[in-house]
Specification:
Radius of gyration: 31 Å
Shape: elongated
Helix content: over 70%
Largest sheet: none
Order of helices and strands: HHHHHHH
Strand content: under 5%
Structural class: mainly alpha
Length: about 200
């Protein structure tokens, strides 16, 4: 357990020493107040936890926590030559997607629970934790992967039929549009303008 907290502490220290918008704000506040940015970060975590318990819009804050930090490190993983971190964050997004779909149906029953958003935030933090047994790795290995391997052939068959049906419908719609445009009603002829030449009566 001590090794886990040490690793998390090291990860937080590394983040606080990076150059980004969060550390820029913390450095500015540290210069003006004299409070070390690690304590400012701890205070921000405490305020965030209290807000998740009692604040309005806790759902938005919780979703931002589960999105902003992973999105930032996912972009860094894409830009880095190492592919191991790509797999790590791709696994997180798979679990996050499954969780979001499940939450859509369960939210109507769970949103009234006082600690719901705190528990959700802790779950998302566990899924992105910098340890080998974080939530995304555990859930993917023991839940998502066995289910996927068991139903992969059936899912591929259904998705193939769905793609074929979509292509057929799209092709038929395009053909119908082209045909209607080709055999549509002819445009009325433009009315002839009266001739500018005057027709004078001839005198016999």
């Amino acid at each position: 357990m001590l090794a886990i907290f040490t690793k998390i502490k090291d990860r937080v220290e590394a983040f606080l020493n990076e150059k980004n918008i969060v550390t820029d704000c913390l450095n500015t506040i540290e210069e003006k107040t004299g409070i070390k940015k690690r304590y400012l970060a701890l205070g921000a975590v405490g305020v965030t936890g209290a807000y998740l318990l009692f604040g309005y819009g806790a759902s938005l804050l919780c979703n931002l926590i589960g999105f902003v930090y992973p999105a930032y490190y996912s972009i860094k993983a894409i830009e880095s030559p190492d592919k191991e971190d790509d797999t790590q964050w791709l696994t997180y997004w798979v679990i996050y997607s499954f969780f979001s779909v499940g939450e859509f149906f369960a939210d109507i029953f769970l949103h009234w629970f006082p600690l719901y958003y705190v528990c959700k935030c802790l779950f998302l933090l566990w899924c992105m934790a910098p340890v080998s047994w974080n939530g995304s790795q555990v859930l993917y290995r023991f839940v998502v992967r066995p289910f996927f391997l068991k139903h992969e052939a059936r899912v591929d068959e259904i998705s193939g039929k769905a793609m074929s049906a979509a292509e057929h419908v799209t092709r038929e719609v395009l053909h119908t549009l082209v045909r209607n445009r080709a055999v549509g009603p002819a445009e009325p002829e433009a009315k002839r303008l009266p001739s500018s030449a005057s027709t004078e009566p001839t005198v016999d």
